[in-house]
Amino acid sequence: MIISGIEVSSKIKEELIIEIQNLKKRSIYPCLSTILVGDDPASAIYIRNKHRACSEVGIETNDNKLESSIKEKNLIELIKTLNEDKKVHGILMQLPLPDHINQFNVINTIEPQKDIDGLTYYNAGLLLNRKPSFIPCTPLGVMELLKYYNVELKGKDAIIINRSILVGKPLALLLLDKDATVTICHSNTKNLEEKIRNSDIVVTAIGNRKLFTLTADLVSDNAIVIDIGISRANGKVIGDADYENVSKKVSGITPVPGGVGPMTIAMLLKNTVLAANRVII
Ligand SMILES: NC(=O)c1ccc[n+]([C@@H]2O[C@H](COP(=O)([O-])OP(=O)(O)OC[C@H]3O[C@@H](n4cnc5c(N)ncnc54)[C@H](OP(=O)(O)O)[C@@H]3O)[C@@H](O)[C@H]2O)c1
């Protein structure tokens, strides 16, 4: 089974288009404000793709491009202005930030009701308490994929190879809430290969094939593989898994590209519409 993020995200976008048209009839014009600091080419591409996806479904955007030398206090001032701006429903701070800026301070300046990436400690805390408001887009997209393809989670052993706040930690909570037994792994995990072989659901998000490649000998026949990692080889975007061989063995796998990537963007759109829906007029 190919777990296609393109198929599922297209359906979600179709539903959002209708929801956005209805919001506009109520004079609510969903708007996402993005902030990009510096000139990292990958970040610029991500922002461009997010803007394009917004325009496809009818979400307005405004773009704030800042020099990498910007002072933390000026970035925080900008976020405070966007927090106050009633036309803006969602604020997206493109990461990573330059080293001289404290990411925690910046992210947590975002008003939780506009934190469509779900990264503030307020929204992370709600998720921890099983009262989620905005859930980070990549883990949310993974859960939507698993739901759409009827992947049974109850009682299953899931392994997540990633412990970031953006991916591994929130996904672990979401899988746990669906009664999976979750193991979170990282660069210091012992016996990683054995743990992977014993897992029903394998989520990998490393993004460096020199450090780690998910090969066919590592996965069991009935495994479901969710490949979040992104890296490049010979000018092509690839995931963590040796897709050609792993896909022949397992019972389901997400391709890269076309798996988790489009779902992350669809969830960004969904969270922005959710934020706009919560506006009281
Ligand atoms: N498709 C999408 O929409 C999407 C969205 C978000 C991220 N991504 C991709 O997912 C990847 C991870 O993103 P991130 O922001 O979470 O990056 P990150 O913070 O750098 O996380 C990488 C994780 O991999 C672990 N790791 C590194 N080498 C390892 C090894 N040899 N064995 C086991 N674990 C190892 C790291 O462990 P330590 O914690 O010990 O360092 C860390 O937890 C990147 O490729 C990114 O581009 C894709």
Please describe what this structure looks like.
- The protein has two domains: 27-113, Rossmann fold; 137-262, NAD(P)-binding Rossmann-like Domain (Rossmann fold), CATH 3.40.50.720.
- The chain has helices spanning 5-25, 41-57, 72-84, 103-107, 121-128, 137-148, 168-177, 192-197, 243-249, 260-277; strands spanning 31-37, 60-66, 90-93, 157-161, 181-185, 201-204, 224-227, 231-233, 236-238, 252-253.
- Helix 1 packs parallel to helix 10, helix 2 (41-57) packs across helix 10 and helix 6 crosses helix 10 (260-277).
- The longest helix is centred in the N-terminal third of the chain and has 21 residues, at 5-25.
- The strands form three sheets. Strands 5-4-6-7-10 form a five-stranded parallel β-sheet, sandwiched between helices.
- The mean pLDDT is 97.
- It is 42% helix and 16% strand.
- NADP nicotinamide-adenine-dinucleotide phosphate binds next to helix 10.
